[in-house]
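Researcher: Go.
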Amino acid sequence: MNAAASSGADFVSVSLAGQYLTFKAGMIDAMKRGVTVVGSALNPGDDSIGIGAFPAAGNGTLAVNAVGDDAKVIGESAGFRQEIPIGRPNMGISAPGVGILSIGADWKPAIENGTSLATPYVTGVLALAAQKYPKASKNQLIQALLHTTDDNSHAGKLEWDELFGYGIVSLPDFLGTDPSSYPDVNPLFVTAPSDPRCKAEDQTSQPSSMEQCAWAKFPTTADISGAPTQPSQSAGDTSDNAKENGAQLELVYAFAVGALVILGGAVWIFAYSRRRRRSQSN
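Model: Structure:
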């Protein structure tokens, strides 16, 4: 994450989880640079106990949950073992992550499940929109993404819950919406404890500090103020050309991965969107 942010990436996909201190420096540096961090929410099951929830739990991070082709979250979807779904107080969005054709441990084709598959899908969707709307800021892209989910594109307003976030990503609706009409503000970043999202359902009063914020506690506005950390240089690679070529290779790799993810999932989303709209019309 640190290397991608310092190399000039616009979006960073992180399909793993850990404690805040593990990702603190990278998350702060990414936000200072205006890099969008897309992180996988925890999967249901014992494997997620005690491992930490960052960077998905970070303030401003686009946390992603996984859904199956039955529009149910992982843990409830018929394509995955039945477990208690894990929600997030800052869940951003949901995307296909159940019954996905992937590569197994033996490097052979395999059907896999998990938020780790849904996360690069969302990152690839953002990359496609950034290519189509090059003048839109990354904050505007996130705004448009959340406003065009399967729920919000029809309801006309943002609707949220801790399992689906703001809904299931809708590629056709997202790419058909010009993000420049939305404000250039990250809708997932809470700037002060007075934000309504900081108050949990079991809290009787609005929190007075970010440490009490239910949505996300870190990083704070103070954490991301100031200049970003300068990228490190190795002794044998300090030329401007070498750094530029390295950044270009990383970006090419990132877009290649995103393109593969999109190619595999675009048909699923398009078919699901048409089926959902047809059922609504009936």
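Model: The longest helix spans residues 240-281.
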